[in-house]
Amino acid sequence: MNQQPLDKTMPWRQYICLACGLIYDEELGDPDSGLAPGTRFEDIPDDWECPLCGVTKTDFELFERQEITVSEQPIQFNREPGVVVVGAGIAGWSTVEALRTLNPDVPITLVSACGGDLYHKPELSVAISRGADKSALIRETGPDAARRLGVQLMPGTFAVGLSPALRQLRTTRGTLNYTHLVLAQGAKPVLPPQLPPSLCWRVNELEGWSGLQQALAGGKQSVAIVGAGMIGCELAEDFAHAGHKVTLLDRNTSPLAGLLPEEASSRLVNSLTNLGVTYYGGVDVAGITELESGKRVVELEANPSIEVDHIVAATGLVTDNRLALQAHLRFESGLAVDPQTLCTSDPNIYALGDCISIDGTPCRFIEPVKHQAQAIAHAIFGMDTVTYTHTPPVIRLKTRSMPVVLHGRPLAEGTWKTISQDANELIMEQYLGGQMVSQLKIGTSTQSQAA
Amino acid sequence: MNSVAVSSNQALWADDSQVLADVSMVGREQLAPAAYRIDHEGYYPLDIMANLGQAGAFAGHLDQYGARYGLAVASMQEISRHCGSTGFMTWCHDVCGLYMEQSGNPALLARLPDHTAGRTFGGTGLSNPMKAFTGIEKMALKARKVPGGYSVSGTLPWVSHIAPGQYCGVIASVDRDDGTRSHEIMFLLDLDERVTLRKCPEFSGMEGTSTWAIPLVDYFVSQDQIIADPARPFIQRVRAAFILLQAGMATGVIQGSIDSAREVEPSLGHVNQYLHDRPDELQAELDEMTEVTSRLCQTPFDGSKEFLLDVLDLRAWGSELALKASQSALLHQGARGYLMNSSPQRRIREAHFVAIVTPALKHLRWEMAKQMREEVPA
């Protein structure tokens, strides 16, 4: 479809999904959903959906890499220490961009545990079936981005000590002083003791994903995914699409327990089953062992064990609280921040992204991050025109065969009501005391029907 | 266990402030005047260390005396403030006492009271095995099982606070018949007539720490000398406490440096105001460090990774600040600090020592990065 002569007179443009940040590149198209390379944005059918999060064309806008002015960064004696940002994921780099946009001169240092390369994290849970590898996911290398934005990048560096009274951050490559500190360290996978890190892959950042991707690259393999939350379900579908034999395990009877009512989760299970995924609900993992052949055995409580090539743990995330405790920063399941300015309990320290909590609740979605970065940059430069307004983001499950869209947050004590249903789609609403608290749509999209 | 409690001494050193006041007095009156001789001329101050032992400087951290790590570190700070070499030997002596007590070996516990009171002296030779355990270098001593104990051979380089008739805690690897590593043993090496200590080359400072190489040939280790067999679980348990105790060496050198900068403030303040790292600034950072140290001293045997990271961070921070403070003190004192026998001159070398003695600054950073990295399947 949409095969048209390539228009060479106009440069290729890029469009960004406002919901998830995916970039549609006209030059590359989106062959997975039938858009040939060279498909202009205006020629994309209206019912086309974002391959990552499922929103339609109207939620995309022209993406033009901002020309950000950077002044020469001379070595100055005794200059102000400037802003130190910890973490070079989307949150860290968004902060750097927001700061640099407002101020071409302020010294910025970016401390990164990894190499600092820019990639779009939500893509990790759909990238294996697309045949992508690490290099395909990297949009810009850390050093290139550091040059473009005039920051000092410290790759392979861990933040290990923090003394707010001294405005001092200690790292594994020496001590940094800061005028303002921005913590964007993300969250870490939680591994229960039964799941040893040496035997279980986790998909939370590019390096970890890349190890798994390489391990799965050698042909069809069997994979057990422990945890059927959002990431577990998305990975199960992704691996199954890539031809692997997937077993998805969860201690709850149904996947996405707590988010979906039974009527909805059974559709998800059916969809996964049709793709060849085996779903085991209501099972507890007792332990993992490694056989001499290199195969791994998932031992289950009160159930026969399962032998697989690889195990992926998708058992949730937690924010490391060591620095916060050491620095006496308020911590409530995440770094507690002011909901408008993202300032922590220390006036010179801000935080955003997966490592924060607002009113005691962490918020680990991509959509608010850019807004949070904007608010922090404005607060740091004393411009209070832009503040952050927190609303729970729409949850979109990237399970292409059975997309799930959830507005609001379901409550355990709420009552679900079916609004409409047919073989392909189910729409429900949840009420508590006459008040609608969430809205759910689960169903086969037109896009995947066409594909 | 630890049945050989010394009740009389316990009463004697029960008051923290009294111990600190006594240690401080020995520091001011005996160590400070001898510091140059110790650092430069190689005077090994066992007489002064005996007085420090009597004052309770080597007791605080021991379970028998209430596991007051804060007191042990504060005593070490007071000593290091006047003489970094003796501060370092205090650490050697303290951890040797820690090994003896934590071993639970009745023969070693029986020797602990003399050690604690500074009537006998012993150090630690764990630099090499600590580095060997983390993969930085190879284990220097090898042990072979023989009837009634082990036979040990090999050469341990650079062990401090030892002399003929003294002792030190060391570790040797035990190999299987096929040459693969079985495990390691830790024991108290008695430097008796079987051992001839080998002189080390001249160091740039800290010459009075009585540092020697120990060559061993078929040295028999009896059950009475065993600290831990196997050694790894023991080291795992005492590792954080072992490193945490070193905090006193760093904070003492830092405090001494601040003292030196302050000393010349009346005469040189009008020009010193143009310098970086002024004494008030350094003192504020040291106070912050002291607060962190006190907190960590509450739970020296916390086995969590987070606690170990906190301790490694503190130790690295101590090295960095000691370097910064000693440099600043010399600049504050100017020409008089450049005299060979001046305290700031000596503290430059002491601070360098704090930053290179095991665990060295670079090893600390390397280890913290290792601890922070997430383990993934091979």
Describe it for me?
The complex is a heterodimer of chains A (451) and B (378). Helix content of chain A is 18%, strand content 27%. Chain A is α/β, with parallel strands linked by helices. Chain A has four domains: 14-63, Rubrerythrin, domain 2; 83-187 and 319-380, FAD/NAD(P)-binding domain (3-Layer(bba) Sandwich); 206-316, FAD/NAD(P)-binding domain; 403-450, no CATH class. The longest helix of chain A has 13 residues, at 90-102. In chain B, helix 4 packs across helix 9, helix 5 runs antiparallel to helix 6 and helix 5 runs antiparallel to helix 9 (247-263). Chain B folds into three domains: 7-121, Acyl-CoA dehydrogenase/oxidase, N-terminal domain (Butyryl-Coa Dehydrogenase, subunit A, domain 1, Orthogonal Bundle); 127-231, Butyryl-CoA Dehydrogenase, subunit A, domain 2, CATH 2.40.110.10; 246-372, Butyryl-CoA Dehydrogenase, subunit A, domain 3 (Up-down Bundle), CATH 1.20.140. Helices cover 55% and strands 14% of the residues of chain B. The model of chain B is unreliable at 1-8 (pLDDT under 50). Chain B is of the alpha+beta class. The A-B interface holds A 113, 156-158, 160-161, 163, 165-166, 168, 170, 172-175, 188, 197-202, 207-208, 211, 215, 310, 322, 326 and B 284-285, 288, 292, 306, 309-310, 312-314, 316-317, 320, 365-366, 368-369, 372-378.
